[in-house]
Amino acid sequence: MKKLFTLLLSLCAFSASASVEERMLQDFESYQVGDAVDMWNIYNSDISTSSAIVAADPKDASNKVLHIKSRSWNTLVALHDLGITAADLTGEGRFLVFDLYRPSSDGAYKQLMIYCGDKRVYIDGSFVSQCPPERWTTKCYQLDASTGESGTLCLGFNSTDAEYYIDNVRIVDVADFGYDRSDAENSIRHYAEQCGKNIGIAVATGDANFFSAMNDDSKVITQTVSSQFNMIVAGNEMKFDAMEPEQGNFKFETADKLVAFAEQHQMKVRGHTLVWHSQLPGWLGAGSEGASNNNNYTRDELLKIMENHITTIVSHYKGRVHEWDVVNECVSDNSTQTLRNSIWQKVIGESFIDSAFVYARRADPDAKLYINDYSVEFAGNNKADRYYNLVKKLVARGVPIDGVGLQAHLYQGSVDSAKLDRNMKRYAELGLNCIITELDISLPTSQFGSQTAYEKQAADYRKIVNVTLNNANSPSLLIWGSSDAYSWIPGSTNYTRGEPLLFDTYFCAKPAYYAVRDAYSARATTMALEEVLNAVPSESLYVDVYNILGQPVRLHMHRSQIYSLPQGTYIIDGKVMNIR
Ligand code: 9MR
User: Which domain holds residue 39?
Assistant: First the structure.
């Protein structure tokens, strides 16, 4: 069951204009099972223990694939006779793509390298999770700009113990992403800014090599992140284990890069996260669930550790990180208890929350301080109400908290605008902000590729944005991931759900992208027009309304009647206005 890719022109389902062209370089079908393919070592080391043998696809015996065992560092597969140069592999909208499969015995974290002749055209910035075990995954790389070099295309994982399969090595050209990253005036960010809102994106090390690509303006991910968003949050790189991997030894390098990138692109930074039960360093002795106290810390000792962690990090970024998730996911999933079992709660008690906020406030009095949690979006739902009751108590006892984060890891179809609106309003009554911090709206695998499902997903995104636009205490909305290829959802749901984001694997805009952009732009237009109308002298009670062809719709209409016009675009007193 060979996939037919050769010079296939496929229209992206998402937009009439987005188009993707694929050119097959090697699908191994012309080989015999058992044929060996050359390997190459970058430093000419002994590669005799490594092998690349054409084999039957572990999932489909009728398909031929390449089975690779890499037993020495820097040993790659040499794909001869492809007739390409390094320059052929690069360009805006051009990706090198292949399918990857690894048996469960293979370790997940690896570093991919790609060479064209002697020229390295790609390297993962670090060892990153490559793909789930025992399933084919599409891997997609925008290579480093090259000119002229030619030679054999070599690729593989830098490892002494890798075992994996590859197939369908191909070049993909995206002729049109369905949106123009260079059009600053027609971006989500532009319209959100007109509405006075922050629209954010989470990026992580493994996402199109973001931390290596961030200084390269030709990279699609760099362009997407900086052109469409005005806020950024690190998916993993500012968590406890990343920032303080050894006690008292803080690692700021990666997070510093993120902050510098944000400043270069006039984006705000959201700091995620200071105190959490997950992604804790081993030295803390909290165990795999984050709920043990293997070092038998006393309450005072653990408070000191927490104070030092928060104070060091928040001081380091004083004035540069706009807001912090001070305490993350402290509410229990068990409806009979308030707080989750964690080392913090167990050793310090509920007041660990109070202390964490106080330490953060002291370190940067201007940073906005948030509590953050999941499954707490919709007022009336059990966990949402327990979260609210906890926050209400924090406010009552004077904890220096500015706002509440609703993570919003949602399923398509689960969005309840009325309950979300009610939630935001009850936090406003407490004097708090209430923002969406980690939005994604997943689809079941059975709906992948379905235009109808993407439209419904888009409608859900639009609902969420509209609720935030209706609530002045909701200044920020952040999307948890840059493209469907880099979402955490598939792995976390055992690959039963996914495709939850605004962009697909190649960063083509999905309907959800347009929905979010339109939601902000509609409000921005209305807001701009309201200003124009308000500027009209109060005695001018009547306006002339035209359609976009300039034909009169209503002349001398009482301006109080404008919002009763049927949905559509009009020119009113010389200004374009969308009525929705
Ligand atoms: O996106 C993050 C993913 O890369 C990590 O593997 C995962 C580990 O816990 O954390 C993900 O982000 C989480 C965030 O920090 C807190 N809320 C839930 C998010 C999804 O798990």
Answer: 19-176
